Amino acid sequence: MKRIKKTVLSIFIAIWASVLVAQELPRQTYFFMGIAFSSFKTKDEAHSPLTYKGSGLTFRVGFEEINPNFVARFAANISVGGASPKLKPRQTTGQSSFSLNNIDILYSHYRRINGENTEGWQNYAGGTFYFTFDTRAYTLPSNNLNGFQINMGLNGGVFLNKNIGSDWRFNYEPNATLLAYSIRPNYIGLPETEQIGRFSLKSLLRSGRFATVNRFFRFQNRFSFDQQVKEWRQNRFYYAWDWTNNQTAAALLQSVHSHLGYETLFKL
User: Fold this and answer.
1) Residue 16 DSSP SS3
2) Which of 26-40, 86-100, 134-148, 252-266 has the lowest mean pLDDT?
3) Rounded CA gap, 124 and 69, in Å?
4) What pLDDT digit, counting tens, does each position of 81-119 carry?
5) What's the CA gap between 238 and 230, in Å, rounded?
6) What pLDDT does residue 15 have?
7) DSSP per position, the chain
8) Based on the number of CB atoms within 10 Å of its own CB, is 2 exposed (0-12), middle (13-18) or buried (19 or more)?
9) Of 226, 115, 104, 113, nearest to 159 (Cα)?
10) Cα–Cα dist 134/100, whole Å
11) Residue 227, C-beta contacts closer than 8 angstroms, at least 6 positions apart
């Protein structure tokens, strides 16, 4: 584990060093904002053996910088949604009994790894540092539980893009866990007689765990098409898929999120 942590730290330092070096090169910076329709499935064995399936909305804002030698992006996602338990294959109850609110903050940096090829694929390699905070609530009167989790980590991945004609560009961005830190305190039940454990800052800190792919694995997959509308504005249409398998505590917490969305980018 110590060797893995040193390797990940070295990668992180190298990424930031490359950012400082690249600041002197010509670049384009964009502000973007958008919205996506989201669907998700989650299984939290700390509460229930059932899988909950639902949908919601995701709002996304951030900045993206494009340099001849690198691509960097800072983004913040806010997702809200509701779900109901999946009792049989392809069947769920009609009543929403679970709500999930999620905040995801990400910084991605990718360095160019192939030569100049404006008509073909442009390939980059790097990683994404993320901070995720989500709250989850089971809202049935007889089973009113609330909880949250905090995940931080570093993913390694690639960023590939290719020009399609003069106005379109295709982008593909997969990345997966290198190292993660997860905080999963116990659920808090209401009223007091149903409480499962007592929440405190001490218990929160004690619940944090460092983990690698054997205990925590997150895989993100993103496809997008960028359309140049004006010299100062672009449209982006994207599909993103995010799978997280968290076994840092005794009970499994697994979730899958899909997003189909639109963003508009403004050149700064």
Assistant:
1) helix
2) 86-100
3) 8
4) 988 887 665 555 555 677 888 999 999 999 998 766 656
5) 19
6) 47
7) -HHHHHHHHHHHHHHHHHHHHHTTS--EEEEEEEEEEEEEEEEETTT-SSEEEEEEEEEEEEEEEEETTEEEEEEEEEEEEEEEEEEETTEE-SS--EEEEEEEEEEEEEEE-S---TTSEEEEEEEEEEEEEEEEEE--GGG-EEEEEEEEEEEEEEEEEEEETTTEEEEEEEEEEEEEEEE-PPPEESSGGG--S---HHHHHHTEEEE-TTTEEEEEEEEEEEEEEETTEEEEEEEEEEEEEE-SSSS-EEEEEEEEEEEEEEE-
8) exposed
9) 113
10) 7
11) 167, 168, 234, 235, 236, 237
Q: What is the pLDDT of residue 194?
A: 45
CATH 2.40.128.90 fits 2-267, yes or no: yes
Mean pLDDT along residues 59-76: 92
**Tell me: the pLDDT tens digits for 224-239?**
999 999 999 999 999 9
Residues whose CB is less than 8 angstroms from the CB of residue 195 and which lie 6 or more positions away in sequence, other chains included:
188, 189
Q: What are the structural domain ranges in the chain?
A: 2-267
> How far apart are the C-alpha atoms of 56 and 35, rounded to whole Å?
11
For residue 178, which of 220, 144, 228, 147 has the smallest C-alpha distance? 220
67/27 Cα distance (integer angstroms): 4
pLDDT at 67 over 70: yes
